[in-house]
Write a structure and sequence with these properties.
mainly alpha, 2 helices, 69% helix, elongated
Amino acid sequence: YLSEKTVKNHISRMLAKLGVQRRVQAAVLASHLEP
């Protein structure tokens, strides 16, 4: 079981590593990557 706080923490760390502030920005960034 993962608490909501744990999931939010993981998401915020991933966004910081990608240099974006929102999940939508991360999705746009990922869509520009080669498959």
